[in-house]
What we know:
The complex is a heterodimer. Chain A has strands at 3-5, 10-14, 19-21, 24-26, 33-39, 46-52, 60-61, 64-69, 74-79, 88-95, 103-104, 108-113. Chain A starts with a strand and ends with a strand. Helices cover 0% and strands 51% of the residues of chain A. Chain A is mainly beta. By secondary structure, chain B is mainly beta. Chain B contains no helices and 11 strands. Chain B has strands at 5-7, 10-13, 19-24, 31-37, 44-50, 53-56, 65-68, 75-79, 88-95, 106-107, 111-115. In chain B, strands 2, 4, 5, 6, 9, 10 and 11 form a 7-stranded mixed beta sheet that branches. In chain B, strands 1-3-8-7 form a 4-stranded antiparallel beta sheet, with no helix packed on it. The termini of chain B are far apart. The chains are: A mainly beta, B mainly beta.
Amino acid sequence: AQTVTQSQPEMSVQEAETVTLSCTYDTSESDYYLFWYKQPPSRQMILVIRQEAYKQQNATENRFSVNFQKAAKSFSLKISDSQLGDAAMYFCAYSPPPDDKIIFGKGTRLHILP
Amino acid sequence: EAGVAQSPRYKIIEKRQSVAFWCNPISGHATLYWYQQILGQGPKLLIQFQNNGVVDDSQLPKDRFSAERLKGVDSTLKIQPAKLEDSAVYLCASSFGVGTPYNEQFFGPGTRLTVL
Lengths: 114, 116
């Protein structure tokens, strides 16, 4: 079965510091997508960053970057220069083509300390 | 561009009552998804529509949950009768369609259901 595991239920980081959120997944597929979604309190979920499994280069979106280790089935998210607006639940997610279903992890709640 | 709309935002009902949620996807999006997000967990897919046809409803409790997407645009998810364990946030998402590059899903604000 395809599963996504986030082992850190909660994390805290000082404003302007860097934090890394961990994620591992289990699949027998060779081609798939990985995502990090952000869900702020009482606000809707938005896509932060995505990674295609066939690409070796790690994806980057401004202050957000990933460390994708395909052999280890690991997909961590690094947030640099943390801001108060980064406080949210972060979900790691996996999607195998072609049906585009998304399987979510349980999430990591990130607190930003001023 | 208008986002995914959902209503109501909050609903409180007694167990064994019925409830319905409505979702209007982003214009032009062929695929619509309903997720159930129980407190402390990630969203779980309940049903996926491609236009007005069902792609996947394998995790929909069909004895009490039903969903439809008439005319391939907006959609309604119904629970009848509700149980205590149905308390959750129900998220609707939409995307351009299966097979399009990335097929990014855009999420609505959700409906928070409390069953007493």
